Amino acid sequence: MTAGTLTHVPARTATRRRWPALVPAAVLIALAVAGPLLAAHPLDAPVYAPYATAGDGGPLGGDQLGRDVLSRLLHGGTVLIAGAALVSVLVTLAGVVVGCFAVLHPLLGRAVERSADVAILLPPVLGIMLIALAWPGGGRWAVIGAAIVLGIPYAVRIVAAAASPLAGAGYVEAALARGESLRYIALREILPNLRSTVAALFGLRFVEAVYVISMAAFLQIGPQPPAADWALMIRENAPGILLNPWAVIAPSLAIAALAISVNLACASLAPRSARKAVTTP
Q1: Environment class of residue 181 by beta-carbon count within 10 Å: exposed (0-12), middle (13-18) or buried (19+)?
Q2: What is the structure's pLDDT at 272?
């Protein structure tokens, strides 16, 4: 047995391996953005009999009012994706900034840890209802605000846990010895080594945002009829699931496919080591 050797994995090869994971998310987002242009019918116009089956009314049949399910499905993803993307970006940004600074400042770190522990105990449904009640006219913005508030504590804890070992690294101690500011150390020394964590965190926060916004819509907190929202479509058509199952199955699959594909895409974009250890006999 000889010592292990290191083989270099070309960056171009690693990039090609990521494309298969990016395609489903890109296709879904493109369909959601261009969906209103591709819809054959207006989102609120009855064109079939109520709960018309797929054979009698369009590719996916009709909903409880006879509206085309496929057209409403194509209309319903744009706002959900935009809201989830906004939540995930703001939550990830707040988690990165606060988490990196928290590991360098003990007092701030303890305060952040205690605050996060308390906030994590709050059930998401209760948090959404409290913010919606405090902001009665907020609608979808109230739900987005609730998702941001509920997501930041988790993000801060994840970033702080990943950054904690880096705070004692030699290059960080050297920067402290040079008299560099905490902002410089957090953003220039620690953050570049957390790219994998940030990519994974963004994917997880996007999934959580999709589910939080969808759960709120299912509870009729946020979008209201006749809005074409995927979660609202599930709630509205649940009583007729035996008459036209696609009116419920199609938006359910759309929500699940969106969350899973974006999470896989973020995981594939997370930087990996360009070198692999290979043991040869």
Answers
A1: exposed
A2: 56
Sequential DSSP letters for 128-147: HHHHHHHSTT-THHHHHHHH
**pLDDT exceeds 60 at position 52:** yes
The model's confidence at residue 55, banded by pLDDT at 50, 70 and 90, is confident
Q: Which amino acid is at 18?
A: R
Per the structure block, which two tokens stand in for 258? 């969106």
- How far apart are alpha carbons 60 and 58 in whole angstroms? 6
Q: CA-CA distance, 240 to 64, in Å (whole number)?
A: 7
- Using CA atoms, how far residue 132 sits from 35, 173, 216, in Å, is 29, 46, 10
Number of helices and strands in the chain (H, E): 11, 2
Going by pLDDT thresholds of 50, 70 and 90, the confidence category of residue 271 is low
Name the residue type at position 86: L
Question: Which phi and psi angles does 181 have, rounded to 5°?
Answer: -75, 160
Q: Which of 5-9, 82-86, 144-148 has the lowest mean pLDDT?
A: 5-9
Whole-Å CA distances, 82 to 10, 182, 202: 35, 34, 14
Q: What pTM, to 2 d.p., does this model score?
A: 0.77
Asked if 62 and 68 touch (Cβ cutoff 8 Å), the reply is yes
